[in-house]
Amino acid sequence: MSEIDLCPCGSGKEYFQCCQLYHDGLMNPSKAEQLMRARYTAYVKKKRDFILDTWDEKSRPKFLSFEKDLKWQNLEIISTRLGAEFDEEGWVEFKAYFKQNKKKSFQYENSYFRKIDGKWIYFMLI
Predict the structure, then answer these.
(1) Which of 27, 32, 64, 65 would be 113's cystine partner, CB 3.0–4.6 Å?
(2) C-alpha dist (Å) from residue 123 to 28, 91, 115
């Protein structure tokens, strides 16, 4: 009997029914929050191409590496503003909890997303 592979995004669905659909290019997120959850899961699963492909080209790094001693624990969505299917922009406020060097911490962000050619894209505000 195999263990259920729940999606790290916190949806309660199995990964193959959730963020894997976005990671494999079978679907595009229809809401900014879905993209935020898929990007978080991509960090957990080390899906470098998905992260970079959904990041605005003006602010994304040329290379993305994953720290070996960092383990993502869970994602907490605090709030969303706009970012629905028919919106053109949206914000997702979140905390992403992680453990590194045996210490627990979190990353807080109020992420900004815009829809470009019908696809949600993450914009790092500089």
Answers:
(1) 32
(2) 17, 10, 10
